[in-house]
Design brief:
alpha/beta, single chain, about 725 residues, DNA-binding, 29 helices, 22 strands
DNA sequence: GCACATAGTATTTTT
DNA sequence: TACTATGTGC
């Protein structure tokens, strides 16, 4: 006793220690960026176990990503050793899946349900629309899915939805929603939202289940509480209702998932939900330099709806933030690559400490191409995920129909892949025959001789039946990893992948091998686990989960994925109106504020070096022009250093001499009037250059003046004085 | 029923 | 720009 406390005490400041050692009752930790909030959560769990005699069985910690869960587990292991194994640390979704499987007999779902990822769910939804004679082209299934998701997030079922549907589109959704739920049920499948929705339903309907879980999880910790949606809120508050030992950590300034139903109100009203709750503020930042923190605070202070916090840092002042203005996306990428090379050369920065962030995945392309050309090793987090690749999903579909023969989406996926001569006509016949016998198509394959089909299709169907039988035997006789390997071969997926062009098929083949290796590794770590557990884990996997942070490469990812991470050097690219803030959020103040928080999250990822870049023109669809992001004007001038990047020039980092690149600009006599510069006009006062055209006598300068708005000026005559800093 | 070509369309973030 | 869906020709 006391050992752990002695050990951790010197590592914590007063507020952190206060949070860590508050054992009982509701606790709200309002934590700023870089204040060590996940660490506090971890230490608190360890404290409960080591100092308060709480059994690890009685603690539940919920996070949003597997990565966060794993990190917490690893850290705890070093504090309390093997005891972590008995503590439940999971994501919301995997926790829900676990509860639903455990109480499968009470949900009408059984234990062997399949979880549909977004792609599967949309495919099923589209099917429902076709069934109902609703043209999927007139109303995009993805949009319908969004509406259904947001209904489920609010615990609104098909009936309630129908009752309140007002708009034209709501009414269409109301028609599809019940059918979609029915078909999910028929397929013994759940979508992501269902995991939470049905768990809350279960806890509401079965008080005995609720009570037993309340008694089990006497201590509950929730990370990133600002990102919880209504169902997640209900889930944790129901679980905590009895003992009220709930500790939530969050930062309203980092709420960036509002579009997905996250309700910032949850954290704002926590004190009302749990009266007598203790509030601890963690306002000391341990991550960033003063300069970076100052810039971040200034940006986010432009938001109206927030719990105001004053972040402070005892760290060094640090270098100025570099603002790189570039011509287009290619030169932006070039400037990023130049700066990366400089960081590596002059600062001896490891590549693993450098991240390039962007708003949309599409932006990674240009950067990727440039890094490739410059031989700068990189890795991309996100984009097309491994488990979303076609050959992988095809292989998994074979595994899924064996584990859950009712899974109609997986069946449709593989019924004619590889090609067996089973087209739309045959598929319809199979489904009709199955329905008439009250079987799923896979079950039908095991009992039917195919006599309801024409000869060619019959052969194909019998072939498929043969595959199914072999897979069932293989599953019975082989350990999971060998079974997966066998399945890839038996199904014909491997052979199919080998056809087609050589480079493509080589990489597909590698992917299949990687899948086998992944199962193998999973089996080693979970020797008793069945293949179904693996299937569940990978559908609930996220991009960041698979990110190897120790690899000596530069990391590329979206701003969203970067939340919770930190890097010595960060580039935030594409700081343009329409991109950050994104065009889809321009018309609502609320959405703009969320974009601003996204920018804030990006800035606060950086420890020492921050680079902001934007392109004066960017190829998006057809055209071209872009204006610099309004958020740049919210950065305090003295935290910035402006650099106008030119193609193929080299770009100074902070500690190199202050010389601007001059190779390409020497002919430009107005180069001091670069985009982004602050200027003062004798009549109109201070303003900022937002665009310019030309580099000769007729150069036009576009200035946004602080008091009089936007003006276009001829550089030759405009008496602009550059405010230098 | 299949494969290929062409046209049209959709482009934010993701558990 | 890139992918998908549809249509056409076999």
């Amino acid at each position: 006793m006391g050992d752990l406390l002695e050990k951790i005490r010197p590592q914590l400041n007063e507020q952190q220690l206060d949070a860590v050692t508050t054992a009982d009752g509701p606790l709200l930790i309002l934590a700023g960026a870089g204040s060590g909030k996940t660490r506090v959560l971890t230490y608190r769990s360890a404290y409960l176990i080591a100092e308060c005699g709480v059994s690890p069985f009685n603690i539940l910690a919920v996070t949003f990503t597997n990565k966060a869960a794993n990190e917490m587990r690893t850290r705890m292991e070093s504090l309390v050793g093997a005891a972590v194994r008995d503590m439940q640390v999971s994501t919301f979704h995997s926790f829900a899946a676990r509860v639903l499987r455990r109480f499968g007999d009470k949900t009408g779902l059984g234990r062997d349900f399949t979880i549909y990822d977004e792609e599967d769910a949309v495919a099923l939804l589209k099917q429902c629309m076709v069934d109902l004679n609703i043209n999927p082209k007139a109303h995009s299934p993805r949009k319908v899915k969004e509406y259904i998701s947001s209904a489920k997030d609010k615990m609104i079922g098909p009936d309630a939805y129908k009752a309140t549907a007002a708009s034209f589109f709501n009414k269409i959704v109301a028609e599809i929603y019940p059918r979609y739920q029915q078909r999910l049920q028929d397929s013994s499948a759940l979508d992501f939202d269902d995991l939470l929705y049905r768990t809350v339903q279960l806890l509401t309907a079965c008080t005995d289940v609720l009570e037993s879980l309340q008694n089990k999880y006497r201590y509950i910790m929730v990370d990133e509480y600002q990102d919880t949606n209504h169902t997640q809120y209900l889930l944790v508050s129901k679980l905590a209702a009895r003992y009220k030992n709930i500790c939530v950590v969050g930062d309203d300034d980092q709420s960036i998932y509002g579009w997905r139903g996250a309700d910032i109100g949850n954290i704002l009203k926590f004190e009302d939900d749990f009266p007598g709750c203790k509030v601890v503020r963690l306002e000391q930042n341990y991550r960033s330099t003063q300069t970076i923190l100052r810039a971040a605070s200034n940006v986010v202070s432009n938001n109206c709806s927030r719990k105001s916090k004053t972040l402070f840092s005892k760290g060094e002042l640090g270098d100025k933030i570099i603002l790189l203005s570039t011509d287009d996306d290619a030169s932006e990428a070039g400037a990023v690559a130049d700066s990366i090379e400089d960081l590596i050369r002059t600062e001896k920065a490891p590549r693993s400490g450098i991240a390039v962030l962007y708003r949309t995945n599409a932006q990674s392309r240009a950067i990727e191409e440039t890094l490739k050309k410059r031989f700068i090793p990189y890795t991309i987090v996100g984009g097309i995920r491994f488990y979303q690749r076609k050959e992988i999903k095809d292989s998994l579909a074979y595994l899924k129909i064996i584990s859950n023969p009712k899974d109609i989406i997986s069946f449709r996926r593989i019924v004619n892949y590889p090609s067996r001569g089973l087209g739309n006509v045959a598929l319809a016949a199979i489904e009709a025959e199955a329905a008439s016998k009250n079987l799923s198509p896979v079950e039908l394959a095991l009992v039917s001789n195919g006599d309801f089909l024409r000869s060619q299709a019959r052969t194909g169907f019998l072939q498929l039946a043969g595959v199914v039988r072999s897979l069932i035997t293989a599953k019975r006789d082989l350990p999971p990893d060998r079974y997966v390997e066998a399945a890839i071969n038996i199904s014909g997926v491997r052979a199919e992948v080998m056809t087609g062009d050589a480079i493509e098929s080589e990489s597909r083949k590698e992917n299949l091998d990687e899948l086998i290796a992944a199962v193998k590794e999973y089996c080693q770590q979970n020797p008793t686990a069945a293949i179904e557990a693996f299937l569940e884990e990978i559908t609930l996997y996220t991009d960041v989960d698979s990110w190897d942070e120790s690899a000596d490469v530069v990391t590329l990812m979206t701003l969203h994925s970067a939340k919770g991470l930190e890097f010595p050097a960060v580039f935030i690219t594409g700081l343009e109106e329409g991109l950050l803030p994104h065009s889809r959020s321009l018309d609502k103040d609320r959405d703009i504020e969320e974009e601003r928080r996204l920018f804030y999250v990006g800035i606060t990822r950086a420890r020492n070096h921050l680079f902001l870049t934007y392109a004066r023109s960017r190829r998006r669809f057809a055209s071209a022009v872009s204006n610099e992001s309004r958020f740049l004007a919210e950065l305090p001038a003295e935290t910035l250093r402006f650099v106008s990047a030119q193609k193929h020039a080299s770009y100074p980092t902070q500690n190199m001499s202050a010389s601007l690149p001059n190779t390409a600009v020497s002919a430009d006599r107005y180069r001091h009037l670069a985009v982004g510069r602050w200027v003062v006009h004798p009549t109109w006062g201070p303003g900022r250059i937002i665009a310019r055209q030309g580099a000769d006598e007729s150069t036009m300068i576009d200035v946004m003046f602080q008091y009089v708005g936007r003006k276009k000026l001829l550089a030759k005559y405009a008496d602009l004085e550059v405010k230098d800093y």
